[in-house]
Write a structure and sequence with these properties.
This protein is of the alpha/beta class. It has 9 helices and 9 strands. A hairpin with a 7-residue loop joins strand 5 and strand 6. Helix 2 crosses helix 6 and helix 3 crosses helix 5. 43% of the residues are buried. About 4% of the residues have low confidence.
Length: 335
């Protein structure tokens, strides 16, 4: 297959791709990536892969490890931020379609409805599916398999096994699960993005904690846990979206996820268009808040709580991360 990742689409049922959300899973506190983590992350995955390699596989030693990055429309995708971010990374990296998971036994078509599309006089039915793209971004620390689609309705264990089998077939060394949730955060402050992992080694490298959430979970949580149980290093990345503006799109949250992925994977992305959309989104929410005194007062309370919690810890770490992005963008393109 040589199909590049398409422009963003709406969810399979025709609604906003994050209309039904939860507000707990993924809230693990501060979890930003330490300076220089991308190479340390890649080195850890490479070492783990080498330790498990056969003699034939050891001939590939030194190659960049492959990381599978996954996001799903639905309960794990408030504001469509996670799926939009993964899609944008794929477009920026020139990702090409290499496979699909489209067993109709995974979906309830009354919930995730197929769509009719006309192109050049030809009509076709687009069925809910999960697509897998490959990307080999220049100067990145890793190669990528980008997975996004619709959260399945049925047979989650079979679906999870199917995806992890695809990961093994493509020599995946680690997995990043991406989600977005609704939370009590103000739209006027940076969108919190937190990392967690059940892998003890990754906890030390990332300086993050193991997941602490207990309760109902989505396919992202199931995949993260199953991968960890199978010995495949997995990291969960969650963005917290203001619950009072949780509808799609949410470009400010998408930007926060993209920047976290950029640091985590050593990518260099052109985020200018998403950044402009994020600024316009924030101005639009400002205008709405000004028209409603109750919302304005509530936003002010959230701002005060956020500033009290976060400002004392506003460290050089965030500045260092931004400087690393700046340096990556200044490097001349490889010939």
């Amino acid at each position: 297959m040589n199909e590049e990742i398409p422009p963003e689409e709406t969810s399979a049922d025709g609604t906003d791709p994050g209309a039904e959300r939860h507000t707990g899973e993924g809230q693990t506190g501060e979890g930003s990536v330490p300076e220089g983590f991308a190479q340390r992350f890649a080195d850890h995955l490479r070492a783990a892969q080498s330790a498990a390699a056969t003699d034939e596989e050891s001939q590939r030693a030194g190659a960049r490890p492959t990381v599978m990055v996954m996001a799903f429309e639905g309960w794990n995708d408030a504001g469509a931020a996670a799926s939009s971010a993964v899609r944008a990374v794929g477009q920026a990296c020139g990702a090409e379609l290499i496979g699909k998971v489209e067993d109709e036994g995974y979906y309830d078509y009354q919930f995730s409805r197929p769509k009719v599309r006309s192109t050049g006089g030809h009509r076709e039915i687009i069925w809910p599916s999960t697509k897998i793209y490959r990307a080999r971004p220049a100067r990145a620390a890793v190669d990528l398999l980008l997975v996004h689609g619709v959260e399945p309705s049925f047979r989650w264990q079979a679906f999870t096994a199917d995806l992890l089998t695809r990961a093994a077939e493509n020599d995946v060394s680690g997995i990043v699960l991406v989600g977005a949730l609704l939370a009590d955060v103000p739209h006027t402050r940076p969108i919190p993005a937190s990392l967690s992992s059940e892998d003890v080694a990754l906890q030390e490298i990332l300086e993050i904690d193991e997941p602490s959430y207990e309760g109902p979970t989505g396919i992202v949580g199931v995949l993260a846990h199953t991968a960890a149980q199978a010995g495949l290093p997995a990291v969960s990345l969650w963005a917290a979206i203001p619950h009072y503006v949780g509808q799609a799109p949410s470009p400010k949250a998408q930007l926060a996820i993209m920047r976290e992925l950029e640091d985590l994977l050593g990518l260099t992305l052109d985020e200018s268009e998403v950044a402009e959309d994020a600024e316009a989104w924030e101005r639009g929410v400002d205008d709405l808040a000004e028209e409603d005194t109750e919302i304005a007062d509530y936003v002010k309370q959230l701002e005060e709580a956020t500033d009290t919690t976060n400002l004392p810890e506003a460290s050089g770490e965030a500045i260092a991360q931004e400087f690393e992005r700046y340096l990556r963008r200044r490097k001349p393109p490889e010939s």
